[in-house]
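Q: For a teaching handout, I want to show students what a protein-ligand complex looks like in token form. Below are the inputs, and the small molecule is cytidine-5'-monophosphate. Please produce the holo structure.
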Amino acid sequence: MNSSPIIVALDFSTREEALALARTLPPDRCRVKVGFELFVAAGPALIDALHELGFEVFLDLKFHDIPNTVASVCRVAAGLGVWMLNVHASGGRRMIGAAREAVDATAHRPHLIAVTVLTSLGAMDLAEVGIAASPQEQVLKLAALARQAGADGVVCSAREAASLRAANGEGFLLVTPGIRPAGAGGGDDQRRVMTPAEAIVAGSDFLVVGRPITQAASPVDALNEVLVSLGCH
Ligand code: C5P
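A: Here is the structure, written as tokens, with cytidine-5'-monophosphate included.
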């Protein structure tokens, strides 16, 4: 049983790079995330290869379409044996519910996670697409909708974790990117970051960590440092 809260984002453009990195990591001490770029480049065969290495996989493709189409793709994704997949909460109650039903009908039943408001969107961006609420209000609203419609949790900033935990209770999974280990310094495009320990204290269940591990001189050492900072040995 893998009790690690760390999900390593395999943000690579080729199968070879992704597998070369994955082979250096212990699959019982982390999980891996496959997003658009890598999945479009390497496809389901890469998911199989990661499973053969012993990893559980978060398929981060943020499905958003009519309920029937989303249900179909969730069924196929669950059939790949992934551990977690996600949909956009803004697809609405029926879309999330259709994803829930589809996932529940599979043998594997991966965690179904919803994306609320993309962190790239500010109040002005929301206003332009007809949403008067602030990003924070919209996150809380969509998270509640996602939970009611059957999602197991949401992707969220660590800064939103405490209010989402308070509003949605224990057991609702909070999956948090924007993590930078203490002393990692800035220098990349993430701005509102938290350390792994801060994010866990704020209520996150899983931490998505990309470059601090994948671009480290020794990814396995970087992973172990994060785990030690969390008291995981
Ligand atoms: O390299 P880094 O740790 O910034 O990678 C974070 C990962 O989490 C990337 O795969 C990125 O796309 C994803 N992500 C994010 N912020 C969000 C949602 C997802 O950084 N709001």
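A: Two things your students might notice: The longest helix spans residues 36-52. Residues 9, 11, 35, 119, 155, 177-178, 190, 208-212 surround cytidine-5'-monophosphate (CB under 6 Å).
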